[in-house]
Amino acid sequence: MTLGLSLSQGRRRLDERFVVGAANVGAVAVSLALWTVGMATIELGGMTDLGLVSVLPVTAVSGLLLLCVSFAFAVRRDPETGMMLLHVAALIVMLFAIPAIVEQVPRFNVAWRHVGITDVLLRTQQIDPRIDAYFSWPGFFAFSALLTQAAGLRSTLDLVAWAAVAFNLLYLVPLLLILRAATRDLTVIWFGVWIFYLANWIGQDYYAPQAYGYFIYLLIIGLLLIYFGGEGRPIWPIPQRLFAAPMAVARPQLAPHQRAGLLAVILVMFGALSASHQLSPFALVGVVIVLGALGRITLSGLPALMIVILGTWLSYMTVTYMQGHVGDMIARIGSVDNTVAANLTDRFRGSSEHFAVIVVRSVTSVALWSLAAGGWVRQLMSRRVDLTWAILAVAPFTLLLLQSYGGEILLRVYLFGLPFMSLLAASALLGSRGRSPRRVLAVVLASSILFLGSFLVSRYGNERVDMITPGEAIGMAKLYEIAPPESQLVAVASNVFWKYRDYELYHYAVVTEAVLDLDLPAIVETLRARPGSAGYLIVSRAQLAALQLSYSMPTERWDRLRTELRQTPGVRIAYENPDITIYTTSASR
Amino acid sequence: MNRRSLVFPLLLVELAVTAEVIVLTSGASPLRVGLALWFILVAPGWAVLRALDLPMGVLAMAATAVAISVSIDILVAMALFYARWWSVERAMTILLAMVVVLVMADLPIVRRAVLRLASATPVRRVMRP
Q: How far is CA A455 from CA A100, A202, A341, B65, in A?
C-alpha cells in the first residue's frame, strides 16, 4: 500500500515536472515571439533622449517580462541546466540583439574605428606603432584582419552588428565556472548569472579588444578556480573563520603534463591579452594576486609570470607610445579626485531625459553594490562566510588609483567586479535559511523586473547618439570619395563614425567648444589648419543628438550654425542629404 | 567508440584541410564563411584541448577552445604583421600545421609515449565542470 502510494506520488511529481518544463519551454517560445513582433514594429524616428526604451513597443517589453516570469518559475526549485541555459540564451538574445535587428547600419562610432584599424593592417600589411596607441596593442586587430580575409568578407563591418550577442554568449560558460567554484547552490548560481546579464548595462561588449579581453579575464579566473583551486588561507589580522568555506567544487585531479599544459595555455591566453588591450591584463593580474594571497589558487608563482609577460610587452612593444605618454601616465597615478571628476561629475549634465538616464545608471550600480554588501553581511551573520568573493568584488576598485582611462575607469571597475557582485547580490536576495519556492519566485521576479527596467534605460540610453542611419553612412562614404588623402576632417561632436577606412591618411579635429559658442571663425580656422590641404566639416544627425543630449544645445542654435556656415565666404556644401551635410573649404596655402 | 580512436583526429584534420582549401581557393560564399569561422575560432583550441585531454564538460570545452584559438590566432597574425610577412595564406597554413601537430600528439601511440616519459601519475577524473 505504502509502496503503491509512493509510486503514485513519484509519478505525479514526474508528471508535474514534465508539465512545468513544457510550460517553461512554451513561455520562452511565446516571449521570443512577442519580442520578435515588437522588433518588427519599432519606430526609431520617435526616439527621445531616454534612448531606445522610449520607442520600445509594449509587445517587446511583454516578451521580456514573460521571460522573467518563466525564469522565476524555473529557478525556484531544483533548476535544471538545460532549462536554465534556454532561458539565459533567450535573455542574451532579447537584451543584446535589439540594435542588430532594428537598426539598418551597425551602431557605435568606436566599433567603426576598430574596423578602420583592421583596414590599416590589411592595406599596409604591417603594424606601425607611430600611428596611435591602438597600434601598440594590435593583437585583436590582427585577429580581426585574419578573420576578415579568411572568411572572404567585404569588410570587417560585417562582424560588428552581432558582436554583443556573440560576446555575451561567450561570457556565459566562464561565468558559470566562477560561480560554481563559489557555491553549490544552483538557484544562487543561475540567479547570479541572470543578474549579471540584467546588470551589464556598461556596453563594453561591442566589436572591441576589451570585449575579447573580458572573455579571457573571466575564463582564466574560471579555469584557475576549477583546475588550480586551493582551500584558502587566512590573512592577518582577519580571523581564519572568514576563509573557512571550502571550494564548492571538487578539484579535478590532473596529471603533471596536464597541469603544465593548462598552465601554458593560460599563459598563452594572457600573452595574447597583453598584446590586445591596455587595461584588462592589469585587472586580471590583480585578481590572480588576490586569489594567490588568499590561497584560493595553488599556483603561487603565476602572478609573477604574468607580470613578466605584461612587463615584457610594455617594455618592448609599446615603446613608441610610452615615449610620449609615460610622464603623463605616472603623473595621473593616485590622482583619484581627477578620476572621480572625469568619471562622475563630468557625466552629470545634459538634457533632463539624459540626466534621468544617468541617474538610473548610478542608482543601478549603487544598488547592485549595496546588495552585494548585503550578501556578504548575510553570510557573515550566518557564519557561512567566505571573504574571497567579497575581496574579488572590490579588488577592481584599486584601478581607480591608476588613472581616469578617458573618463571610463569607473565603468570598467563595475564590469570587472560584476561577476562577483552578481553572485553576492543573488545570495543576498535569496538568503539561505527558510527559502521556500514561493519566496524565491517572488524575490526573483521582483528583482528581475527592476533590473530589466533599469537595463533598458541604462544600456540603450544613448542610442540616439550611438545609432547610425543609412543616410549618415552614405554621406560618410561620399566624404571618403571626395576628400583627398591628407585632408583635414572636422567633426562638431566626438561621436562621429569616421576613421573606418584610410585611418592614417587623414587629419582629424573635433570643434565641439566652437560649435557650442557659435564661434564660426574658430571652426573655419580649424578647417584650414592644414596648409595645402582641403578641409571637410561633417555635420550630422547623430552629432546634433550628441550636442543636445550632453550639452542641451537648442535646435534653433543648431539651425543658426548651419545657416551661418552656408553664408561663410570660402565654405561650400560638398554633399548633403537629410541626415548629413559635408561642408568644405578649398585647399589653403 | 573509444575516445582515443583515430576517427576524431582524422576528422579534425580533414575538416581543417577542407577549410584551408576552401578559404584559399574559393570566392565569397556562406560555406567559406562557415568553414573559416570554424577553422579560426575553434580548430586550434580544440586540438590543444584534445591533446591535453582535460576533464572538462562540453560547454566548458567549447568556450575554452574558442579562447585558445583566438589567442593563437592573435599571436600568429601579429607575428606575421610585425615581420612584414603577412598573408592570409601563410597564417592559415601555420594554423593548419599547428592543428596537425597537435592532432598527432593526440594519437594513441604518441600519447602513450608522452605519458610514459612525462609521469607515472594516473589521470583520475573527479568531475566534468
A: 17, 9, 24, 31
pLDDT at B118 (0 to 100): 67
Which residue in B67, B84, B115 is closest to A215 by CB distance? B67
Where in chain A are the domains?
Answer: 14-105, 108-160, 162-433, 468-585
Q: Which residue of A has its CA nearest to B68?
A: A269
B89: left (phi over 0), alpha (psi -120 to 50) or beta: alpha
- CB < 8 Å to B114, chain A: 257
| Distance (Å) from the alpha carbon of B107 to chain A's nearest alpha carbon | 16
Residue A434 is classified by DSSP as S
Q: Do A275 and B115 touch (CB under 8 A)?
A: no
At B1 the pLDDT is: 39
Q: Which residues 2-61 on chain B approach chain A with CB closer than 8 angstroms?
A: 23, 26-29, 32-33, 36-37, 39-41, 48, 51-55, 59-60
Average pLDDT over residues A424-450: 91
In a domain, B124, yes or no: no
Q: How many residues does the structure list for chain B?
A: 129
Q: Which residue of A has its CA nearest to B75?
A: A272
CB contact (8 A) between residue A276 and residue B36: no
Domain that holds residue B108: 7-117
**What is this model's ipTM?**
0.92
Q: Which of B86, B88, B126 sits opposite A250 (nearest CB)?
A: B126
pLDDT digits (tens, 9 = 90+) for A103-147: 999 999 999 999 999 999 999 999 999 999 999 999 999 999 999
- pLDDT category at B10 given cuts 50, 70, 90 is confident
Say whether B75 and A173 touch across the interface (CB within 8 A).
Answer: no
pLDDT in tens, A285-338: 999 999 998 888 999 899 999 999 999 999 999 999 988 777 777 766 666 666
Query: What's the rounded mean pLDDT across residues A192-199?
Result: 98
Confidence of residue A407 (pLDDT cuts 50, 70, 90): confident
Residue among B33, B41, B121 minimizing CB distance to A256:
B121
Q: Does any domain span residue B39?
A: yes
Please tell me which residue of chain B has the smallest CA distance to A215: B67
Amino acid present at A384: R
Burial of A193 (0-12, 13-18, 19+ CB in 10 A): buried
Taking only the tens place, the pLDDT of each residue in A148-183 is 999 999 999 999 999 999 999 999 999 999 999 988
Tell me which residues of chain A, numbers 163 to 202, contact chain B at a CB-CB cutoff of 8 Å: 170, 172-174, 176-177, 180
Strand ranges of the sheet holding A580-585, from the earlier edge strand across to the other edge: A507-510, A488-491, A535-540, A580-585, A571-577
The residue-averaged pLDDT of A377-399 equals 83
Q: Residues of chain A with pLDDT > 70: what percent?
A: 93
Of A126, A146, A275, the CB nearest to B84: A126
How many domains does the structure of chain B reveal? Answer: 1
Nearest Cα to Cα of residue A512 among A522, A501, A504, A525: A522
Q: What is the C-alpha to C-alpha distance for residues A395 and A496, in angstroms, rounded to an integer?
A: 35
Q: Which three cell numbers stand for residue B5?
A: 580512436
Pair A494, A136: CB distance under 8 Å: no
B118 at A interface, C-beta within 8 A: yes
Residue B88 is assigned to a structural domain of this protein: yes
- B120 in contact with A at a CB cutoff of 8 Å? no
